[in-house]
Amino acid sequence: MSVNAPLNRKLRMGLIGGGQGSFIGRVHATAGILDNRAELVAGALSSDPVKAKASAPDYDIPADRAYTSYQEMAEKEAKLPADKRIDFVSVATPNHTHFEISKCFAEAGFNVICDKPLTFDLKQAEELAAIVKKTGVVFGVSHNYTGYPLVRQAREMVRNGELGEINAIRAFYIQGWLRTKLEADSQKQAAWRTDPSKSGAAGCFGDIATHAYNLGRFITGLIPDQISCHLKSFVEGRALDDYGTAVIKFTNGALGTVTASQISHGRENEAWIEIDGTKGSLEWHQEEPNKMLYRVNGKPHQIYTRAGGPYLSALSSASSRLPSGHPEAFFEAFANIYSSVYDDIVKRATGKPFDGAASIYPNVMDGVDGMNFITQSVASSQQNGAWLSLKHPLCRS
Ligand SMILES: NC(=O)c1ccc[n+]([C@@H]2O[C@H](COP(=O)([O-])OP(=O)(O)OC[C@H]3O[C@@H](n4cnc5c(N)ncnc54)[C@H](O)[C@@H]3O)[C@@H](O)[C@H]2O)c1
To answer: For ligand 1, is residue 258 a contact (CB within 6 Å)?
Structure first.
């Protein structure tokens, strides 16, 4: 079968961010082309125009499509012939820029994959959801942990009733890299993440708790009802939280907790989730993503492995590339998000209907969900953990 049938060509990708010295842009670029379904052809790679140009050869982006700003890129790409211009843009820039960049490209008709958190604040997220609806573009959000084969397996096991009714979700995202005031040394990634004018209303809770919250929502599909949260900044002089815990009541009576830290000594990138149902419990860790534990009282514990065999669902199996025992991880999970977004981009490009609202990939509604979670976490914490509504009309239900 030819690539991206019935479109029968590679998609053309543009990248915003990812300039020299940055983090996640390279991951987007790698994930985007992993399955040979796209090629990176254009970019506005840095907020610094000189660096934007200088970074282009690192990605084999030709000089005439290495732009000095995202505005220039949107304008010039839109003027290119249809068989040349980008099909979509990936936004890998700090949080305060996501809205303007996504809006600019969506309104020009380009599909968008934006990193999380979706925007700077909830109002922007709601506006972006309206723009996506109006323009009909495909819009993905890189909550990449939902791309792991065993996370997708967990979701299907919950949906099939294998866990029974879900009573509890414990989601964690624990890091230690901000134990010291790294931002005072102008460390690039620390500087904007701890700056309220760039990160948004939350620090650690916006940066990583959003992933943990999203993971619980993705796997269980439970609808959030109320939230109570406490956020703290333990490093002296830091303007935003570097630790926090939220308790969430779901509409079915389940209880959830989300704990996130960036000040825990020795912890690297420990995102993990545990789910308790009336029939069984699951546990999955992103630092050991190729296995997942399923436990039932009185029975031997079962270890599910990625590509472990026919007991895995079709979706989970299709989310793996290598045979079992050959570890897959971050890049591949990221690429799974890309691949499912590509399916919809191909449909849109070939005039076929697609249901972006029901996508397996995180979409703009999940982005709004994350921003609502951040907003209400901060508001609850400011009211000493008051219970606040976590319902939002634009989120998946
Ligand atoms: N999904 C994940 O697992 C994950 C991991 C890390 C970061 N992120 C998210 O990705 C985004 C970027 O994070 P990072 O750690 O890569 O940041 P970074 O500081 O390492 O890189 C940001 C890049 O964006 C560029 N940039 C800033 N403003 C720009 C503009 N207006 N136009 C073009 N380029 C611009 C910078 O010059 C830099 O190259 C953030 O929103 C962050 O929350 C997601």
So the answer is: no
